[in-house]
Amino acid sequence: MIALFVVIDYWGGIIMKQIRIIAILAVLCMILPLATYAQDHRHARSAELNIVNNTATQVTVSITTERYGKLDWPYAPGEVARPASKDSVILRVRGDDRIQIADWGTAYIRDVAVFSDGVWNLNIRQARRVMHGR
Length: 134
What we know:
It is a single chain. This protein has 2 domains: about 1-45; about 45-130, Immunoglobulin-like (Sandwich). About 40% of the residues lie in helices and about 30% in strands. It contains 3 helices and 9 strands. Strands 1, 4, 5, 8 and 9 form a 5-stranded mixed β-sheet that branches. A 4-stranded antiparallel β-sheet has the order 3-2-6-7. Strand 6 (about 100) and strand 7 form a beta hairpin. The N and C termini lie far apart (about 85 Å).
């Protein structure tokens, strides 16, 4: 009789340990992808910004980032460039950084630029259409 309780307790303990391990693994399987997505969402789209001024006038582009603060650059008609910080480092921006072009208002970079091949590409004429709602 005592041997029967020992066997039941032994198998019951093993089953409870297995249930706990399975529960922990299930929680980890649900949390790890979310943590990875959050990290990728914040950092994966941090890239250089390529600006193309395809308008007939000179425009001033202002970018506000967490790292550099607010920086301004003038762009002549037809100019294609990648903005650099004050210490001549090519600027890396994220989609949630703000951009202002001339006096057309401000927008998020992700709303006016296209991310492709690891670079944010900003077309001034297209950005103006987006900022003016056309």
